[in-house]
Amino acid sequence: MRFVIVTGMSGAGKSTALKMLEDMGYFCVDNLPIPLMTKFAEMMSTPDAEVSNVALGIDIRGGQAFQNLEKNLKQIDEIGIRYEILFLDAGDDILVKRYKETRRQHPLGGDGHIDRGIAREREKIAFLKVQATYILDTSKMLTRELRLELEKIFVEGKDFKNLYITVMSFGFKYGIPQDADLVFDVRFLPNPYYIEELKPKTGNDAEVREYVMDSEKAQEFLVRLTGMIEFLIPNYILEGKNQLVIAIGCTGGKHRSVTLANALYEFLGKKENYGVRIEHRDIGKDAITKAK
């Protein structure tokens, strides 16, 4: 039996993840009273249970009993039942935004302050994050991207290193992304903007990609960039980093940065032990600005 405990920050996507796991053939139970957790694990592990994959949702809604969760997990260990912990997380600003959008009350935000409720929750569930088998930061994930990551881990059985990478192109004239961990400037490369037939196109178009990557500087930059990223990623993982945002910028975020971001994304996409997504933040802003 594969026994997965799904937990994490309220608002990070636990309920969504459980629904996805159910679609993947897991028998899912959400918010089971914590005192029943050990008995449930024993019952599911018996030969006649006829259940091969189980996902159990546990979170701060367990109330006072939540403080006994660590003891329950030790009991399950002592019985000899193997379990995995999937911990879903997101940045505080993202969680606040999600709560405001849904107009829901945070379970620990009794005074009406969402941020205080989040802080209290982080403190109470810190031990779970330390023990987690998998940590997924959903701050930048779309629903379909979360599903892909869950499929990799719980269906395809791929090795997972608890790191989700966002490769982002941007335009310096619109500002450097505030959440970027690494920022690279490619404004030194030949600019398709000054080629009449390439000006209206973007780095997603083959003609622009060929023009940019035909430069020896672009080729060398990509080799050096991928080499640096390959060196950095294992060290970020050792540090315990769960999310990495790599931002590549040019003047308007439409041609050169998009081309190089796509190239890096393709390189990282061949790796199977961490998630990666692409985002072109400013690719359409030039057209919007001109229309105004």
TrEMBL record:
Binding site for ATP: 8-15
InterPro entries (alphabetical): RapZ-like, RapZ-like_N, RapZ_C
UniProt KW Thylakoid keyword: no
Residues involved in GTP binding: 59-62
Domain of life: Bacteria
Annotated ranges, domain RapZ-like N-terminal: 1-155
Pfam families linked to this entry: PapZ_C (PF22740), RapZ-like_N (PF03668)
Keywords from the named record: ATP-binding, GTP-binding, Nucleotide-binding
Domain RapZ C-terminal: 164-283
Name by which UniProt lists this protein: RNase adapter RapZ
The organism of origin for this protein: Faecalicatena faecalis
Phylogenetic classification of the source organism: Bacteria, Bacillati, Bacillota, Clostridia, Lachnospirales
